Amino acid sequence: MFLKSNLERPFPSEKIALHNRNVSRLKYERSNPANNRHHGLVPGPCAEFLARGGKSVQMYEIVKAEKLTPDVIKLEIKAPHIARKAKAGQFIMVTPTEHGERVPLTMADFSPEKGTITIAALEVGKTTRQLGRMKAGDQLFSLVGPLGLPTHLKNYGNVVSIGGGIGLALMYPIVRAFKQSGNHTINIIGAKNEKLLMYEKEIQAISDEFFICTDDGSKGHHGFVSDVLKKLIAENKKIDLVYAVGPIIMMKVIANITKPYNLPTIVSLNPIMVDGTGMCGSCRVIIGGETKFGCVDGPEFDGHKVDFDNLTARNKRYIPEEQNALKRFMEAK
Q: Domain map of the chain by residue range?
C-alpha cells in the first residue's frame, strides 16, 4: 500500500462521535503516557517535541538508503519502539523535517532484533522526492506508528497474493506472514518492465509458486498480473484467499475477476491521509455502501465491497496543489 497525504477540511457528520472519542483518548494518553502501550500506538518525536516544550528531541537515523528502481527509494530507519510492535500490513506517518509534510508510508520490513523498520517510497511528490535525496546518516524529524489494522493471519490454505508497482514493497512482509502461518503461497508480481520490478528475490524465496509479469514482456509473462489469476481460475486451481496490493485499477480488476467465483479477496487501499489516527476524515472510503476510514478501519478491506471509482476520484482532489508543491521544491534545489 502506497499512501498519499494532503489536507482536507470537510469532516463527515456521521464521524463526529469518533472524532470526539479519539480527541479524548489522545488527551488522556498525553496526561498518562504509560497507557500508550495499550493502544499499540507509539508516538514519535513530534509528541516528545510538544511534551518537552520543543527541546531535546531525538531524531530517527537512516542506517541504510538504496534505490530499488530509478524512482523508488528504500530506507532502513532506526526505530526500535516501532519495530517491536510492527505487524504485516501496517504503515507509519513520516515527517522528514521539522517544517515538512506528514505522509503515510508502508512498512516494507521491520526487525525487532535490529530495532529498525524499512520503508519504500515512490518519488512522485515533493516529500517523497525529499526522502529520495536522503542518505545513510541523515535523520528524520518524526515517525509515528505502527498504524492501521494488521493483516488478519491464519492458515487459510492456498493464498494467492498479487502485487504491482510500489505495492510489491508491502506485499513482501504480508506474503512472509502468510507463509509463517502455514499457508501454501502462490505469488504473482508485476511491473511495467523488468527494471521496475522490486522485491523479486525476496518474494520468490517465500513462494511455493511464483509468477512474474511485465507489461512489455521484458521478463516473465507478457501481460498483466490479472492474466495469471484468470489462468489459475480456469485451471480450477484451489484458491482459498486472494490478496491484492498495488495501483487502484489493478486491485479493482482483481476484485472484479474473483467476485463471480465468490473467492474471498482482500485489498490494501491507498486513500489520501493527514493524521493517520482517525481524526481528520480525509481517508474515508466507501465499503459496502458504508463510510469507513482507511487509517483505523483499514487499510485492508473486502475487495468485493470497495467503491473503487469513489476512491479513484478522491485521490485526484489535490493534484494541482501537489504539482505546485513539487514545482516549488524542484526550483528551490
A: 42-147, 158-314
Ramachandran assignment for 155, one of left (phi > 0), alpha (psi -120 to 50 degrees), beta (any other): beta
pLDDT in tens, 32-76: 544 444 344 544 545 544 444 454 456 899 999 999 999 999 999
Cell of 69: 528502481
d(CA 307, CA 309): 6
Alpha-carbon span 172 to 206, nearest angstrom: 9
- pLDDT 10s digits, 199-220: 999 999 999 999 999 999 999 9
Residue 199, CB-side half-sphere exposure with 13 Å CA sphere: 31
Mean pLDDT for the chain? 85
Q: How do strand 91-95 and strand 103-111 relate by DSSP bridges?
A: antiparallel
Q: How do 284-287 and 209-214 pair as beta strands?
A: unpaired
Reported pTM: 0.82
CATH 3.40.50.80 fits 158-314, yes or no: yes
Q: Do 238 and 158 form a contact (C-beta atoms < 8 A)? A: yes
Report the distance separating Cα 83 and Cα 110, nearest Å.
5
Does pLDDT of 299 surpass 70? Answer: yes
Give percent helix, percent strand, percent coil of the chain, each to the nearest 5.
35, 30, 40
* Superfamily the domain 42-147 falls into: Translation factors (2.40.30.10)
Whole-Å CA distances, 225 to 27, 277, 292: 46, 33, 28
Q: How many helices (H) and strands (E) does the chain have?
A: 10, 16
CB distance 237 to 231 below 8 Å: no
HEC per residue, 131-144: HHCCCCCCEECEEE
Name the DSSP letter for residue 148: S
Beta-carbon contacts of residue 61 (< 8 Å; ≥ 6 apart) = 77, 78, 137, 138, 139
